[in-house]
From TrEMBL:
InterPro entries: 2pore_dom_K_chnl, K_chnl_dom. Belongs to the two pore domain potassium channel (TC 1.A.1.8) family. GO terms for molecular function: outward rectifier potassium channel activity; potassium ion leak channel activity. It comes from Notiomystis cincta. It comes from the Eukaryota. Keywords: Ion channel, Ion transport, Membrane, Potassium, Transmembrane, Transmembrane helix, Transport. One of its GO terms (biological process) is stabilization of membrane potential. It is a multi-pass membrane protein. It is found in: Membrane. Gene3D superfamilies: 1.10.287.70. The chain crosses the membrane at residues 21-45, 105-123, 135-153, 286-306, 318-336, 342-363. The keyword Transmembrane helix applies. This is KCNKI protein. Its main location: membrane.
Length: 391
């Protein structure tokens, strides 16, 4: 009997894990599919655009040719003026003029652009040029940004649960270490004796049956019959309620053996998981200093790895780039030479944005508490003092 029940228990445990992981997997999978569809769309629209020479580009080439001829006449006298003029000329140039659309809007480049759109980073070095691409970018961001925030909130719940459990376990371990240091032999024995005495005084009273209650009531026969019937009726109702509760549990166990009802029960659990999104993040209560330390360590690890494939970055530049990315500021002053390698870094961005999001949420809660204290303090100061009039 035990051998047949073990595989059944394993299947039930696997089903429970499947239905518990399903909502989180659906969110992540939908975001990945949304990013791939956007990459195919933008690579087709922006990558196949025809390069047309605008009037501004022709004027730029004419001014550049004029400066080159002017420099060739007298190199020594016009060298400083040429540097100044060439800087001013290139400041008016559009970067799109010097980029091949097929190279910029490849599949990986378009996928990188989609990630910068729905994460609200927006570096600015890649942007749609065509009118259709701009309209589709607005529509893509309109649905992609809420989906990204939903994934952040859902994954933030998991991360908040892990952080809170780790912090609570650390506090318990810290309290045990402090107790072991402060507790000597005599004091510990006294504490244990007090605990054992307190536990020995605890008496668990089991519920009595109706007959035992009636036997214990010695004055029951002396009372009037009318009041005695009322008390008996109330006892019977209370006893019936206690007896019906286990029967419901047994009936639910019989219903759970039916696969249709079991499936409906699992679906209801999945719906409850959707409704609980963001609840664990609201319950999180860890020190804000701990979250800042976690962010610093997290960014430092990436800043040490990123210069391995981005040769134009050192540790400080990579740290600055990761901070600007995870906080979704995205100035665009630091450009990436290999966006293909950075796409493998997308998981790091997702987790890092969740950590920063949790830190911002904790900081917001602390600010609200501070504002409440300030407002209550100001209200107490402005309250009129009570005047005591003589009798």
């Amino acid at each position: 009997m035990a051998t047949t029940s073990q595989p059944l228990r394993g299947k039930i445990a696997c089903k429970k894990i499947f239905w518990a992981v399903l909502p989180h997997a659906c969110f992540i999978l939908s975001l990945v599919i949304y990013a791939f569809l956007g990459a195919l769309m933008f690579s087709h629209i922006e990558g196949t655009q025809k390069v047309t020479l605008s009037e501004e580009y022709r004027t730029f080439l004419q001014n550049l040719t004029f400066l080159a001829r002017k420099l060739s006449d007298n190199v020594t006298e016009n060298e400083k003026m040429f540097k100044k003029d060439i800087r001013e000329l290139f400041s008016t140039a559009d970067p799109v003029w010097f980029i091949n659309p097929e190279e910029r809007w490849s599949f990986f480049g378009s996928l990188f652009f989609c990630c910068t759109v729905f994460t609200t980073v927006g570096y600015g070095n890649t942007y749609p040029v065509t009118r259709i691409g701009k309209y589709l970018c607005m529509l893509y961001a309109l649905f992609g940004i809420p989906l990204m925030f939903l994934v952040l909130t859902d994954m933030g719940d998991i991360l908040a649960t892990v952080l809170s459990k780790c912090y609570n376990e650390f506090r318990k371990l810290q309290s045990k270490i402090l107790d072991s240091k402060l507790c000597s032999g005599s004091t510990c024995s006294k504490r244990n004796e007090l605990k054992s005495r307190a536990q020995s005084k605890i008496v668990i009273n089991e519920p009595l049956t109706i007959m035992e209650v009636l036997r214990s009531q010695s004055g029951m026969k002396r009372r009037l019959v009318k009041y005695r019937n009322v008390e008996l009726f109330e006892m019977l109702i209370a006893r019936e309620k206690k007896n019906t509760q286990p029967a419901r549990n047994k009936s639910m166990e019989r219903w759970s053996s039916c696969p249709e009802l079991a499936r409906e029960k699992a679906v209801s659990r999945v719906i409850e998981n959707f409704d609980k999104i963001g609840k664990e993040l609201e319950k999180l209560d860890v020190p804000i200093v701990l979250m800042v330390l976690v962010i610093f360590v997290y960014i430092s690890c990436a800043a040490a790895i990123l210069p391995n494939w981005e040769r134009n970055m050192d540790f400080q530049e990579a740290f600055y780039f990761c901070f600007i990315t995870l906080t979704t500021i995205g100035f665009g002053d630091t450009k990436l030479e290999h966006p293909k390698f950075f796409l493998f870094f997308s998981l790091y961005i997702m987790i890092g944005m969740e950590i920063v999001f949790i830190a911002f949420k904790l900081g917001q809660d602390r600010l609200i508490v501070l504002y409440k204290k300030v407002i209550s303090f100001c209200a107490e100061k402005n309250m009129p003092s009570k005047k005591i009039y003589p009798k």
